[in-house]
Amino acid sequence: MVNSHKEKTIKITLIKSMIGTKKSHKATVRGLGLRKLNSSSILIDTPEVRGMIDKINYLVKCD
């Protein structure tokens, strides 16, 4: 069966450099699919993704 309802998504943009941040925060940024400054990633809005965003909220912007 095909899932007919559309899942909510969230767009995340890296707005601050990762230089000088903790290793776990760098790993979280990479886990969200962000690489360079001003890169964006569109992800499904789940509690896990929200937790990752909360951890690095000083580095990213959500749309």
Question: Number of DSSP helices?
Answer: 2
Strand fraction equals 15-25%
Unreliable stretches covering 5 or more consecutive residues: none
Describe the biggest sheet? 3 strands, antiparallel
Element order, helices and strands? EHEHE
What's the shape? Answer: globular
Mean pLDDT score: 93
Count of beta strands: 3
Strand order across the largest sheet: 2-1-3
Helix content range: 25-40%
Compute the gyration radius: what is it? Answer: 13 Å
Structural class based on helices, strands and sheet pairing: alpha+beta
State the distance separating the first and last CA atoms: 31 Å
Task: Kindly describe this structure.
The protein is an alpha+beta fold and 63 residues long. It is built from two helices and three strands; from the N terminus they run E-H-E-H-E. Strands 2-1-3 form a three-stranded antiparallel β-sheet, with no helix packed on it. The longest helix has 9 residues, at 23-31. The relative contact order is 0.33. The mean pLDDT is 93.
